[in-house]
Amino acid sequence: MEKIALSPAAAAILGRLEAAGFPAYAVGGCVRDSLLGRPPHDWDVTTAARPEQVLALFGDCHPVPTGIAHGTVTLFWQGEAVEVTTFRLDGPYRDHRHPDTVAFSDRVEEDLARRDFTVNALAYSPRRGLCDPFGGRADLQSRLIRCVGGPARRFEEDALRLLRAVRFAAQLGFAIHPATAAAMDAAAGLLSGVSGERVLAEWRRFLPCPGAGALLARFGPLFWAAAPALCPAGGEEDGWLAAAEAVEAAPADFPLRLALLCLAGPEEGAVGRAEALLARLRPDRRTAGEVTALVAAAHAPIPRETPALCRLLADRGREGALRQVALWRATGRLSEETAEQLTGGLLSLLERGVCLTVRELALSGGDLLALGAVPGPQVGRLQRALLEGVWAGRAANTRASLERLARALLKEEALLP
Ligand code: ATP
Ligand code: MG
Predict the structure, then answer these.
(1) Which of 19, 49, 165, 231 could form a disulfide with 53 if both were Cys (CB 3.0 to 4.6 A apart)?
(2) CA-to-CA distance for 192 and 159, rounded, in angstroms?
(3) Confidence class of residue 235 from pLDDT cuts 50, 70 and 90?
(4) Cβ distance 137 to 172 under 8 Å?
(5) How far is ligand 2, taken at its centre, from the CA of residue 83, in Å?
């Protein structure tokens, strides 16, 4: 019999449930990952015990009734959290996302039947072995994502499964079974009803995976249904295919790859597409800001000289500047060699501690007033000009050198009409 090494918490919880007479199994992703030889990131348990029985049996494990209506109780065993869910049958689905009702069951096979893919419909107990009524083990060996049951109905029930299918295919490096893939093509439109928050959560995990580009190319309409901003106008797919290729070639970075998708299609619409995409996905401000800046600068002149490189670092920070170079490389505006030179140039400026903000200047705003600057906007203008002067090598970032430049700048300003 196949043996899986359970986590200490999962082993202890299964042992106690079984000792109390309740069949119990580790289930889903942890079993799948264990059989693949990947370390599971968390352990889920499924059992015949009802939620109130789980609460009563594990009073010493800080039980939290996280989803009591759906049968889920979270337990903490020596600091490790485990979700314990009662065997469950899902009733008919409302809104293509949530079952109207759930009913508890006494049979693990019924619980596995509601799960999305065969490789996720695996349960294991040290006492009962592997429970695999849908051929999940064989699909793990053939490296296939395949729906449990009729795929059309399963995607109809819950459209999020469309995004989970591509995400698991990318994460595991699996192919999608032809019948499942065909049902995905047919059901793609249902994704318009899935919340942007869920799309974002899936894409955060999907986009950085190797192989994401091939799935983007194969399932274009599915991604366009999830985020209509990405849909190429007039079914013009060449731009999308080029973007999918760029994604594949780019570093495994979420904002960068999202920006590349916005660049599919006409250049002048890219910023608008990014805005619409971000309005749908609503990522955190940092991510949104990064995507916007990357797209806005995609077609801008590429910095070559030191002042322009400093300006890029000052405007975008280290991460943002390096990402921008990676984007220019991925869209083919830079050769590998030039991209490396540019990256090297940025890193060496940072290493040399180049001054990137007015706060780092050896001359303060107060000093400028003492030199005769007019309080108000002129001070900020002069500080920025000093910064540019340092970048251009017109001054060193020392008091004396900046004072000299400031005097010259003040004289120039005085000469202006
Ligand atoms: P990972 O945690 O690595 O993303 P996982 O397989 O554990 O993978 P979860 O989202 O944590 O995925 O879900 C746990 C299990 O619950 C899945 O393995 C699957 O059996 C089931 N499941 C989750 N979401 C769905 C869904 N939308 N439809 C059907 N079954 C689902
Ligand atoms: Mg999980």
Answers:
(1) 49
(2) 9
(3) low
(4) no
(5) 10
Report how far residue 327's alpha carbon sits from residue 306's, in angstroms, rounded to the nearest whole number: 20
- Ligand located closest to 120 CA: 1
Query: What is d(CA 3, CA 126) in angstroms, rounded to the nearest whole number?
Result: 7
Residue type, 314: A
Per the CB < 8 A criterion, the answer to whether 249 and 210 are in contact is: no
253 confidence band (pLDDT: 50, 70, 90)? very high
Cα–Cα distance measured from residue 177 to residue 175, given in angstroms and rounded to the nearest whole number: 6
Tell me the Cα Rg of the chain: 28
- Report d(CA 196, CA 276) in Å as an integer: 12
Q: Which amino acid is at 383?
A: Q
Does ligand 1 come within 6 angstroms of the Cβ of 202? Answer: no
Q: Write the DSSP symbol of residue 149.
A: S
Going by C-beta distance under 8 Å and a sequence separation of 6 or more, which residues neighbour residue 72? 51, 65, 66, 83, 84, 85
CB 115 near ligand 1, within 6 Å: yes
Confidence of residue 298 (pLDDT cuts 50, 70, 90): very high
* C-alpha distances in Å from residue 72, one per residue of 12, 137, 259: 18, 26, 38
116, 123 Cβ separation under 8 angstroms: no
Give per-residue pLDDT as tens, 346-360: 999 999 999 999 999
Give residue for tokens 């249902």.
190
Helix (H, G, I), strand (E, B) or coil at 286: helix
Q: Are 176 and 145 in contact (CB under 8 A)?
A: yes
Torsions phi, psi of 188, nearest 5? -50, -40
Backbone CA torsion sign across 327, 333, 336, 338: negative
Task: Please enumerate in sequence order all residues whose Cβ is within 8 A of that of 269, keeping only pairs 6 or more positions apart, or say none.
Answer: none
Residue 282: phi and psi, rounded to 5, are 50, 55
DSSP, residue by residue, 26-68? EETHHHHHHHHTPPPS-EEEEESS-HHHHHHHTGGG--EEEEG
Per-residue tokens: 365: 């705003």
Q: Is 136 in the pocket of ligand 1 (CB under 6 A)?
A: no
Nearest CA to ligand 1 atom 27: 161
Tokens representing residue 276 in the block: 């619409």
Residue with the nearest Cα to atom 11 of ligand 1? Answer: 29
The secondary structure of residue 233, as a DSSP letter, is G
Kindly report the protein residue whose alpha carbon is nearest to atom 12 of ligand 1: 29
Q: Are strands 144-145 and 175-176 parallel, antiparallel or unpaired?
A: parallel
